[in-house]
Amino acid sequence: MIAAANAGYRAIAFDFRGYGLSEHPAEPQKANLLDLVDDVVGPLDSLSITKEAGRAEADFVRFDVKSVIRNIYTFFSRSEIPIIGDNQEIMDLYDPTTALPLGFSEEDLATYASLFKKSGF
Fold it and tell me: How do residues 1-20 score in pLDDT, each as one tens digit?
């Protein structure tokens, strides 16, 4: 946290309910993922921190959604993940001729692309 702050980033440590020093929920069996989302969004809202476009968004906007999804799935399905250079972004390594990962069809790609096109990254 100190290193991130010293590098110029805002560092916020979350203590999710039931973990660390926080109290356990009254009915832990009723807790769900949305409770964890609230645990993150609440403090961000109280600190007036809004969602800002970052490095990944700036990289992705250079390509259509389908190309970004293709690149991400092919990139991370390899046995060895390529190393991105200091002056590179993940989409700089995009190769549209790379085959999709085994078990991930063009139809799957189209479905995921349509969902991300609707919701954004």
Answer: 888 888 888 788 877 777 77
The domain segmentation of the chain, as residue ranges, is 2-46, 55-119
Residue 78 corresponds to which amino acid?
R
Q: How high does pLDDT run on average in the chain?
A: 85
Q: Which of 42, 95, 47 is nearest to 72 (CA)?
A: 95
Task: Tell me the two tokens of residue 38.
Answer: 């609230």
Span 87-108, pLDDT tens digits: 899 899 899 998 998 899 999 9
How many other C-beta atoms lie within 10 A of the C-beta of residue 70?
24
Query: What's the CA angle centered on 52, arms 48 and 53, to 5 degrees?
Result: 180
Nearest to 55 by CA among 82, 84, 13, 95: 84
DSSP secondary structure string for all residues of the chain:
-HHHHHTT--------TTSTTSPPPSSGGG--HHHHHHHHHHHHHHTTPPP---HHHHHHTTS-HHHHHHHHHHHHTSSSPPPPPTT--GGGG--TTSPPPTT--HHHHHHHHHHHHHH--
